Amino acid sequence: VPCSIDGVVFFRITNPEKAVLEVEEFSFAITQLSQAALRDVCGKVELDTILSKREEMGKNIKTIVEAETGEWGIEIIDVKIKDIQLPENMRRMMANQAEAERSRRARIILAQAEEQAADMLLQAGKKIDQSPSAIKLRLYQTLSNIAAEKNSTILFPFPEEVLPRNSKE
Question: Which residue positions in the chain have pLDDT lower than 50?
Fold first, then answer.
């Protein structure tokens, strides 16, 4: 089942004499011309564009139709694309594509966050390396965090003197 697109053409008769004499049945002629323009415009773009840029599509159709109808004494006021019916399998396919795109963007954002976290940890590590007392304080803070989670007793398996000392301190 192909997709169907419904649209509306708004027009005004500016010269009734021309409208009757230039074309046999102007209402039918406008309908046929509009349908041909709709097929022409939709045939040149992808489905995503049809779905997302209805207004732009309507303007393109209006330009094509008013090029002909101006000679008939008819002014095209506006063209609106009203409804687009897609077959069920195409809707499922588009939903799957959208889900895959969301998943891709989420993975990219997660990778960027991991990269930023790694850079910040590297900077923090370099700062801590510059001062042995900063290393001790970080060790004590980590042990304090562990102890806060559970009522624990912490045993140091090595003497504190083993930690590097800075001669400046």
Answer: 1, 169
* Token pair in block for residue 60: 């393109």
| Helical H segments across the chain, by residue range | 16-21, 26-43, 47-52, 54-69, 88-129, 132-149
Helix (H) or strand (E) holding 1: none
58: phi then psi, degrees, rounded to nearest 5: -60, -40
Number of Cβ within a 10 Å radius of residue 49: 14
Contact 69, 75 (CB under 8 A): yes
Angstrom distance (rounded) from CA 29 to CA 116: 63
Segment 48-62, tens digit of pLDDT: 777 788 888 889 889
Q: Does residue 76 contact residue 3 with C-beta atoms inside 8 Å?
A: no
Alpha-carbon dihedral angle through residues 40, 41, 43, 47, given to the nearest 10 degrees: -160
Q: Which residue has the tokens 């900077």?
A: 123
Supply 93's token pair: 């396919």
The answer to whether 42 touches 50, Cβ cutoff 8 Å, is yes
